[in-house]
Amino acid sequence: MSLSGMDRKLPHLPLGADKDLAREIAAALRREYGDLPATVKRIAHLANARERTVKNWLAGNNGPCGDKLVALMCHSDEVLEVVLKLSGRADLLRAARMEDALAKVQASLRNVEGLLDGTGAG
After folding, report:
1. What angle, 0 to 180 degrees and rounded to 10, lies between the N-to-C axes of helices 51-59 and 17-33?
2. CB-based contacts of 81: which residues, under 8 Å, 6+ apart?
3. Domain boundaries in the chain?
4. Fold for domain 5-88?
5. Exposure of 46 by Cβ count < 10 A (0-12 exposed, 13-18 middle, 19+ buried)?
6. How far from the centroid of its chain's Cα atoms is residue 95's Cα?
7. Distance, CA of 91 to CA of 73 (rounded, Å)
8. Going residue by residue through the chain (122 aa), what tens digit of pLDDT does each one get?
């Protein structure tokens, strides 16, 4: 079953925002997965979508529907970042990056402590 043109639009967004979303998702998918021949198949598998649908996403013709978008966000940090930025929630992105940085600093400190007391690899 194919959705009509109106079903693919986001009526609550400003005029033209649905095309911005489609273009941004396309760019994010290309950054994350590249332009390799297997890219379409890989994305189709991850999002449980048809290859023709994925080709339309990559061309920026339309964006993924809700369940497909959520699946892409689960597998692609680039898509997640685009969605958070477009939804005005870049603060969540910064918080996640801070948590990642803190975890890396803590791991580094544990390594240094291990080296100082002779239990770490050197």
Report:
1. 110
2. 28, 93
3. 5-88, 90-122
4. 434 Repressor (Amino-terminal Domain) (1.10.260)
5. middle
6. 16
7. 17
8. 455 555 555 445 555 556 788 999 999 999 999 988 899 999 999 999 999 999 999 999 999 999 999 999 999 999 999 998 888 888 887 887 888 889 899 999 999 998 888 876 55
* Structure-token pair, residue 56: 């339309």
CB 44 within 8 A of CB 54: yes
pTM of the complete model beyond 0.85: no
Give the list of residues 6+ apart from residue 58 with CB closer than 8 angstroms, or none.
26, 29, 30, 39, 40, 43
Distance CA 74, CA 29 (A): 13
Q: DSSP string of 37-97? A: TTHHHHHHHHHT--HHHHHHHHHTSS---HHHHHHHHHH-HHHHHHHHHHTT-HHHHHHHH
Distance separating alpha carbons of residues 29 and 26, to the nearest angstrom? 5
Q: Please tell me the distance from the alpha carbon of residue 80 to that of residue 30, in angstroms, as a whole number.
A: 14
